[in-house]
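Incident log, entry 3
Record: Arsenate reductase family protein (122 residues)
Problem: checksum mismatch between cached and fresh output.
Input:
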Amino acid sequence: MGGMEIWINPACSKCRSAITLLDAEGADYTVRRYLEDVPGEDEIRAVLDRLGLEPWDITRTQEAAAKELGLKEWTRDADARDRWIKALAAHPKLIQRPIITADDGTAVVARTDEAVRDALSR
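Fresh output:
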């Protein structure tokens, strides 16, 4: 894969902090405004594989859309995986942010400076 990519919502302070740190470290990266350039189901699956997480692990359950969908009541098992992924693709605001794909093809949810540095060191 190669090359870092960061999925951001520009309104999110943790996303802005991550970008500031990437710039300070002189990182070469691409910005993905995932609310405008919405990832499809296959892309979400690929990112989950890189993160080593399940879809509910990267779902923002406090968002209005999560409440409307009743996500808190959804089962979290292999059978429900597609349902969660469809919800994330249909409502990208539900995707936890920022997500950084590291140069080695792995990914991290970079909500702290430590997590950003972890992605940089990979």
